Amino acid sequence: MATTTQTAALRHVLEENVREGELYEKLDRGFVRCFACGHCCRIPDAQLGVCKVRFNRGGKLYVPWGYVGGVQCDPIEKKPFFHAYPGALAYSFGMLGCDLHCSYCQNWVTSQALRDPSAVSPPLGVTPKDLVEDALRQGAKVLVSTYNEPLITSEWAVEIFKEARAAGLMTGFVSNGNGTPQALEYLRPWVDLYKVDLKSFDDCHYRQLGGRIEPILESIRRLHEMGLWIEIVTLVIPGFNDSDDELRRLAEFLVSVSPDIPWHVTAFHKDYKMTDPENTSPATLLRAAAIGKRAGLRYVYAGNLPGHVGDLENTRCPSCHALLIERYGYLITGYHLTANGCCPSCGASTPGRWAAKFQEQITDLPYVPRTRRRSNLISILH
């Protein structure tokens, strides 16, 4: 449990590790308007935005810079991206803070920093070059901004992604999708893969989480129009978003954007402050997936319950039903796509981002890279 002193110390450290942002405009009387997320906060001098990490100082917006709240090496399937370089290692980093406050957040120690006194994660001081060099040492193919909400730390992510692109790495965002046109255009040149959590299809539910549904839906539309590769995840929570009607409307929306968008329905488990609903059963995921397929989605996956969801961990050709990629959890157990990402049986093209050939996985489980230099930790204890 964090103390008040620790929380105050963390706030002081984060206020010192900043730069002037780019995603904002100056307003009258010293106010600024932030465009990092769908809240578009109008922030007076000496105040914070809703995310708690972007703030107005003297009529300028200052944003997080020069640190990470955590680093981990993940199989790309964990993000989850199922149609982007299967088996690749995703070097994942996050900062602190979020623009939502989901009561079931599984990354709450980083995402709810400065909002929840229990959420204190000591930041690690790094440079973009540090992260990219470590990613290359680990054998990563993709560098991913995740764990907190990356939209609110877009400027720092772009600085890292510029270094990553120069080194030949792909880049990705794992996000709640609460974007703005300004933020998405800012990211567009530097992001290859984008995962959106579409948490519900009910605006009342989104308001319980601290947001609105329309910015998320508009972001999904824009991301697809921009040509970024997108995959959608819905954490199916009993009694919250698991009704047939809500799942059907959600799936129909995705079909209206593109029936080729992969939809992952994943299992809730009791975490953080949400301990009332029962954990999601395999039967519920199977029902949600069936709704998605009936709506017209071609690629529907069920996650978090490996071995209990039948064929829904695998990728099959919608045209001839041939098995293209076989999975157990994050492990790739069979890979049959052609070099140009087509079905070997009927030749139909499979949408996604594919390597010329499958390369063996470095890992099918997350791990923390040993090369992290603990001496670089920014101390929050005085």
Give structural notes.
There is one protein chain. The chain has 382 residues and is of the alpha/beta class. The chain contains nine helices and 19 strands. The protein folds into three domains: 4-65, no CATH class; 67-306, TIM Barrel, CATH 3.20.20; 314-367, no CATH class. The strands form five sheets. An eight-stranded mixed beta sheet has the order 8-9-11-12-13-14-15-16. The two termini are 17 Å apart.
In terms of topology, how is this protein built?
Layout: H1 4-16, E1 18-20, E2 24-26, E3 32-34, E4 42-43, E5 55-57, E6 60-64, E7 67-68, E8 70-75, E9 89-94, H2 108-111, E10 124-125, H3 128-138, E11 142-145, H4 154-166, E12 170-175, H5 181-187, E13 193-197, H6 203-208, H7 213-226, E14 229-236, H8 244-257, E15 263-267, H9 282-295, E16 300-303, E17 315-316, E18 323-328, E19 331-335
Parallel strand pairs: 9-11, 11-12, 12-13, 13-14, 14-15, 15-16
Antiparallel strand pairs: 1-6, 2-3, 3-4, 5-6, 7-10, 8-9, 17-18, 18-19
Helix pairs in contact: 3-4, 8-9
The helix-strand sequence is HEEEEEEEEEHEHEHEHEHHEHEHEEEE
Major sheet: 8 strands, mixed
Helices, by number, come to 9
Total E-strand runs = 19
CATH architecture descriptor name of the largest domain: Alpha-Beta Barrel
Keywords:
TIM Barrel, three-stranded antiparallel β-sheet, 3 domains, alpha/beta, globular, about 20% strand, 19 strands
